[in-house]
Amino acid sequence: MKFFIDTANVEEIKEINEWGVVDGVTTNPSLIAKEGRVFKEVIEEITSIVDGPISAEVISLESEGMVEEALELVKIHKNIVIKIPMTDEGLKAVKVLSSKGVKTNVTLIFSPSQALLAAKAGAAYVSPFVGRLDDISNPGMNVISDIAEIFDIFCIETEIISASIRHPMHVVESAKMGAHIATVPYKVYKQMLKHPLTDIGIEKFLKDWEGLTK
Ligand code: E4P
């Protein structure tokens, strides 16, 4: 399974990337706005840190505008993936962009039927939002599992990014359900790392070592 980091904060990306566990980055307009920086500058800086797919989202709601924005964004770096919202206009843009060899990540997916349409239109990635589904008492993991099953039956190459991850169990369950990628927030990376028994174990090893006659 691949891990992307779900943030636009370059300090967070640098820190987790040093662990050797970042295969790519996803951003969205809310994450970029949180940084209070110029959009293209942030994306450019991220491409200099991580050598993998970097998702940058378009703002237009019409396909022509989406394509125009996308073609500007891909000039930043060869690793840019264009994030497109799951709408009819979005699908039109995905079709055009995939015919030009531009990779797209269709975002705001909440059902297997949406994922199927996005894949059919030529998306390289689909992003089902598990956390936001759980928030409305609709188990997000069922959607991941259904999409994985369908893509497997038809040998669909579109990769599933499990998104809107809220805690480590979302990552573990996504892996079990067959998501190719989990896009993990900084906080969740930290939670995944920690186990109290690891800390207790280190403390005991060091204490025992101190008692040794050297
Ligand atoms: C996905 O690519 C999105 O950036 C992200 O996972 C959304 O997560 P949220 O529901 O926590 O905003």
UniProtKB/TrEMBL annotation:
Annotated active site residues, numbered on this chain, are: 83 (schiff-base intermediate with substrate)
What are its E.C. numbers?
Answer: 2.2.1.2
Instruction: Supply one GO CC term from the record.
Output: cytoplasm
Its keywords, alphabetically, are:
Cytoplasm, Pentose shunt, Schiff base, Transferase
Q: Principal place where this protein is found?
A: cytoplasm
Q: Give this protein's Gene Ontology molecular function annotations.
A: aldehyde-lyase activity; transaldolase activity
Superkingdom of this protein's organism: Bacteria
Listed GO biological process terms: carbohydrate metabolic process; pentose-phosphate shunt
The entry's localization annotation reads: Cytoplasm
Q: Sorted alphabetically, which InterPro entries does this protein's record hold?
A: Aldolase_TIM, TAL/FSA, Transaldolase_3B, Transaldolase_3B/F6P_aldolase, Transaldolase_AS, TSA/FSA_arc/bac
Substrates-to-products reaction catalysed = D-sedoheptulose 7-phosphate + D-glyceraldehyde 3-phosphate = D-erythrose 4-phosphate + beta-D-fructose 6-phosphate
Pathway annotation = Carbohydrate degradation; pentose phosphate pathway; D-glyceraldehyde 3-phosphate and beta-D-fructose 6-phosphate from D-ribose 5-phosphate and D-xylulose 5-phosphate (non-oxidative stage): step 2/3
Q: Write out the coiled-coil annotation as residue ranges.
A: none
UniProt keyword Membrane, yes or no: no
Q: In its keyword annotation, does this UniProt entry include Cytoplasm?
A: yes
Which SUPFAM superfamilies does the protein's record reference? Aldolase
Q: What's its job?
A: Transaldolase is important for the balance of metabolites in the pentose-phosphate pathway.
Regarding protein family, the annotation reads: Belongs to the transaldolase family. Type 3B subfamily.
Protein's name according to its UniProt entry: Probable transaldolase
Q: What is the lineage of its organism?
A: Bacteria, Bacillati, Bacillota, Tissierellia, Dethiosulfatibacter
Gene name of this polypeptide: tal
